[in-house]
Structure formats: structure tokens, C-alpha cells
């Protein structure tokens, strides 16, 4: 595998949206976001856009194969809960089927909810196992159905998750929007950002999604499944335009924007983060290393340009960027683990308040 | 994007396993399968290996990006339930986080289980919403916890799913093994197939997983995240060896083997399926078109070579391959939908019985 420059064009944000297809659901999704933001404005709430999960890059128009970015959506789903807890309204722009707030506590694989539900009914013996199956043309089970209860071991945890879940739904402070492809993500990010601009400084962006740096322009996609048996596969991808630039400078200049930088080589984390702030001029980059991201992150932010201080009478110019490390014990009790997102959100809320007052 | 032949080697199954790394969990996974098969032999059950979900092809050793194959795992998870209903023991070799038997009925996105759980407790007002959140250092809710019940609307369905789920777990006829990468899949398929060979003709293979045709040899992986901003990305992939060949001819010659062929162009479905039977000499190829796969499939199988018949006194040789179409109404009632997998499994069980008697 190599990085080469081939003949195809490089895309600016403008040329991207001019040449790549608008998703069919964009108009309806945008209307939903518009109404949600109106309701939150009337309630005088701050609104945060949380993006979460990985984007796909289809290799075929009838998609069988695609490039993906590693992300279960844990950071975004967990963070969304702490924003909600703090009274923020959350637009959760997430990869379809990635982890979601609240239900994330009950992954089908690691903690399947069927395991802690109990019924008061004799289990069928092996000879009659098919009678246990409800599917197809079997009649539905005779009513009254026995009550289903939650095992005492799980009830306290489920109760508190369920309580928070229902509280949020009663308040209407969580709005779900989903994407699959990087193209859907880019169109949605622009549309949602423009809607959020009416919130001015009360709009926050928490861009935790793992967005592909590369994509295949619609015009170069093969219509049908690529056939194997014709030798090896060669894929040439173009760069995805740097979307933070128009977000900061055009779509919502007043927004408080937090982006993420994930690296597998911790050495280049800080330089890459500073480079991003230099280039886009937003407020915070959260740097995290793939292997330590659950218990250590660093917040990089610009220091006010004019900020200087006297030291022993000499004028000493401060560094241009400040590092703020957040770390928790990597060994957490399984029954009540501390989540690093709690501390991340707490720090960001402080800074967002300063940002709002600074207007 | 194009299919080109570049300089790199092409892999046979042998050279693949000689050069690509064995997954660390393979030994433990194989032991688990070994014990499961022993138990099923004592119970004189037929055993089916159901593979399900898509395989990934990592582009980096520290995986940030990967190639994937489109598959939620619906076919495999649904089919596994019907095999279990018929009294088969099922080894469910699935992509981590893809759909699973039973829990598939409660996708977090389309049918989140939190929606049909009820608690007898007043919801916190917006002023006290943070008190509804259980996270971090808040004390766990005071006992006794209110009971949690299932809404009457959902109870009958959940009851029957839960009943089947518990019956299967009581019987111990479902064994879960998961993979993520195509490399893990290939190593597991070989190990499980060898273990299943002791079952002779009572072993069935239902290979519904969406396996990548291409991969990147370990030796060509870049260690760290590929950096963008260095022009466009070019990926050259090698072909995955045709694993059905050794499966049929070496690992378990007596097994009843059903493979799948997914195409987006229905025109080439039958020829591709016949080509696969021609090449590997197994029992059934299930052909399905991406857009109609939930309500129309075709079973292609070889016709006994010697089978000929008299027609008006003339000897007429039959076609080499038989097509058996299965189709259901594409509009199903949402409360009690017919699933095409029920008819697929019913037909396959008939054929497997003939296969067993044919020994």
C-alpha cells in the first residue's frame, strides 16, 4: 500500500458539494433538526452536535464492499449522556447501528438484555423445543402471557439507565440523525451546522465521528459488484475536503467547535493537533491515542495571542497553544466504572460558558 | 478503480496459512468448538456451522481503516434460529457485533428494548434531570428498586422470543464464535471444519458470511495510521484463496456444504453459482440478488451425472444443474412476518437427510 498522487482532481468543500450527490433523506433530516433547534431555543437551552461512529466509503454503486473507519461509537454515545445530564440538548449525528446513548449499556454481545429477563413458565423439553419457537405460522402464544421480570442482580443498574432514558425522552432534549457513508455525513454536517448558526455562541460542536480522509467520487464508482478472479484489486482514492474550514469560517463562525485527533503514534499527536488549530482556527482539539483513549486524552487549545506575562521583569511570551491532560485510572470497578467522558465534558462545559460570556 | 494484476504473489490456501499470522484466540476457540461437538455427538444431533456477517481487511497494523463487506448478519442470525428450531446444534461463526439469533428481534436502532420497559416511578422534572443519571459518583439508587415491567403491547412477542432463547440455552445447542478480520475467519473456518469432520455426513455447512475476495498480506501492512495530506490513497490488494476447495476436498469431504453467491446483477447469478459447483464440487449454492434477497433466492445443485430419462423413446440427458426457486410475498405483516429463511432451511433439511441416508 502506498500514498501516490494520481491524475484525479482534488476537492475543495465547494467543488465537493457541487459534484457529489445530495442524499435523498437530507431535506427531511434537516427539517427535523430545524424543529428540534426551535424547541430548544424556546427552552433557552444550549445545543451540542455530537457526531459519532465511523463513515463508510462505498466501492460500488450497489454497495457490497466499502472502506470503513474503526469506531464503535463509544466516545460519542457516552459523551452524549453527560451533555444531556448537564442539561444540554443533543443532536446525535451517528453511524447507523453504532452505539447509542443509554442502550450502549446493553450491547447484544457483551451484555445481552435477554440474559437478565425472567419468565414464570416451564421451559420446553428437548422433545418439544420447536414449540418454544414463535416464528412463522405458529399461533401467537395464548394470553394471558406470563409476566416478564428483571433479575434482581441487574435491576438497580437497568432502573437507573431506564430512568435517565425516559427523563430525556420526556424532556425531548435528544434528537437522533444517522448516516452511513462519508458523503451522507458531509452533507448532514453542513446542513445541521447552518441550522445551528441561529444559536450563536450557545451552539457547540463535538466532532467525535471517525471520518474518512479519503473517498471515491461518485463518477468513478463501478455500478456492480467488482468481480474477483480478474487479478488483484487496485483502489485509488481522493482526499476528502477539510470540512472544518468552512464550518469555522462560514457555516457557524460563532460556534464553539471541538474536533478530535486520533493517532496510533502518540509522538505526533500534539503536533497534529496544533496543526489543525493553526489551519482552521477553532477552539479545541482533543487528541487521543488509539490504545489509551479510554483513560487518557489531551485538550489542545490556542492561547489568546496578546497574552504575555512578566517574569523577573522580563517580558516572556507564552506558548501559542495550551495542553490540558485528562487521565483516569485504567483499572475501573466493573460494577461502577468511572468514564473519562465525564471529565472531558465537565471541562468543555466550563470553557463553553466562558465562550458564551465572551460574546 | 480498476482490477489490475500487480507484481505480488497469488495465494493458495496452503501458502496463505503458511504466511499469514494465526489469531491468538484460535486455540481457545477450537477447544470450545471441540467440546461442543463432543456433547452434540453424545446427544446424536446433527451440527450445522452457520457463518454470518462481513469480514474486514485492515489497512494498518494498528487498525484505524479497513475494507468491509456489506452484511448486517440478518440471513445468518435468522437461519440459525430455524436450524435450532429443527433440533440442530448450531455453531454460529459470526462477525463481532453483527446480528445474533434471538436478540436480532431487538435491534437498538429499529426496535430498542428500552422503549417497551416500564417503571413505576415519577420522572424527574427538567430541573432535576441530572438526578436521573446514574453515572459516575452518584450513589446507586436506593433499594428496594421499583419493579420494571414489559408493556402489554410487546409482551407476547418478547415472551415467545425469550422462551425460545432460554430453551436453546437450557439445551446447550448454540455455540457462539466471533471474528472480525478475514484472516480470523479463514483460520477459524479451517479449524472448525476439521473438528466437524468427526460428524461425517451429519455435519452441515451454511456459509452465509460475506467474505472478502481481496486482502492485504500482513507483510504489506503499514504499521501506523496512514497520514492524509500526502496526496491520494492507493491500495493494492491480493486475492483471498478460494477456501471452498480445501474445505470440500480435504477438511471435511463428507460434510453437506451450502455456499452463498450474492450479486447485484441478477443476470450473472446462475452462471456464477454453476461455476462455483463446477469448481468445488459441493452440494448447494444459494444465489441471491442484493435487492431481492429477503423474498427470493435460488438453490442451485448438481444433478447426479448418470441421471438420464426416456422421453418418447429417445434418451434425453438432463441438465447438469437443477434450479430450485424459493419466493415469498415481499409484503409481510409487520406483526407476524413470514421469513424466507424458514423455507430455505426446510428445503435444506430434506436434502441433508437424503445426504445422510446416502452414506
From TrEMBL, chains A, B:
It comes from Suillus subaureus. Residues 1-24 are annotated as: Disordered. Residues 176-294 form the DNA/pantothenate metabolism flavoprotein C-terminal domain. Residues 1-20 have a biased composition (Polar residues). GO terms for biological process: coenzyme A biosynthetic process. The lineage of its organism: Eukaryota, Fungi, Dikarya, Basidiomycota, Agaricomycotina. GO terms for molecular function: catalytic activity. InterPro entries: CoaB-like_sf, DNA/pantothenate-metab_flavo_C. This is DNA/pantothenate metabolism flavoprotein. Pfam families: DFP. Belongs to the PPC synthetase family.
